[in-house]
Amino acid sequence: AGLGEFRIRDLNDEINKLLREKGHWEYRIKELGGPDYARIGPKMLDHEGKEVPGNRGYKYFGAAKDLPGVRELFEKEPLPPPRKTRAELMKDIDAEYYGYRDEDDGILEPLEQEHEKKVIAEAVEKWKMEREARLARGEEEEEENIYAVNDDESDEEGGKEREGEEGQQKFIAHVPVPTQQEIEEALVRRKKMELLQKYASETLLAQSEEAKTLLGL
């Protein structure tokens, strides 16, 4: 490219101008009934025997093919990598892909247990605070002792028991009735179990049951 880029472009433009003029003459010869040189004529080849490259009818000759921006026009884009088939993708999938071996290192499980204890403690504390707040606002009343018996009710029930035909024996079934404190403790235990079932793992539940058995609860 010793002639310089602009000189090479001018020469290439001049060649293309002559080729267009040649094409007009070939078309005119065909109109006059002569042979169709555009179809039967020899192809335009370069010194390597390859067809002269072009873009939209414009041809590039010699050093013009190496000008900036021209070489990129004729470079073929690399083919995309072949897509893997489903069978090839499944070869790399094992139990570790689904996370079944995450606990094998002995690190994740203790962290999960610690997090579970923290979540349970936060949930219990939140429930206590919300309950105290409702009690303070008067939205929730203290649980009433449903087993408390007034004197009037006791006398009325006693009178009904004494009623009946003479000579008929009366039987009174004595059933152990839990106290208010026992009921409250049972409700607290039930609430704890619900929270444990919601947030705790099976291992933690088993440990809790074992501890209760040892303590005799």
Automatic annotation (TrEMBL):
<feature type="compositionally biased region" description="Basic and acidic residues">
    <location>
        <begin position="157"/>
        <end position="168"/>
    </location>
</feature>
<dbReference type="InterPro" id="IPR037200">
    <property type="entry name" value="Isy1_sf"/>
</dbReference>
<dbReference type="Pfam" id="PF06246">
    <property type="entry name" value="Isy1"/>
</dbReference>
<dbReference type="GO" id="GO:0000350">
    <property type="term" value="P:generation of catalytic spliceosome for second transesterification step"/>
</dbReference>
<dbReference type="GO" id="GO:0005634">
    <property type="term" value="C:nucleus"/>
</dbReference>
<feature type="compositionally biased region" description="Acidic residues">
    <location>
        <begin position="139"/>
        <end position="156"/>
    </location>
</feature>
<protein>
    <submittedName>
        <fullName>ISY1 factor</fullName>
    </submittedName>
</protein>
<comment type="similarity">
    <text>Belongs to the ISY1 family.</text>
</comment>
<dbReference type="InterPro" id="IPR029012">
    <property type="entry name" value="Helix_hairpin_bin_sf"/>
</dbReference>
<feature type="region of interest" description="Disordered">
    <location>
        <begin position="134"/>
        <end position="172"/>
    </location>
</feature>
<dbReference type="InterPro" id="IPR009360">
    <property type="entry name" value="Isy1"/>
</dbReference>
<keyword id="KW-0539">Nucleus</keyword>
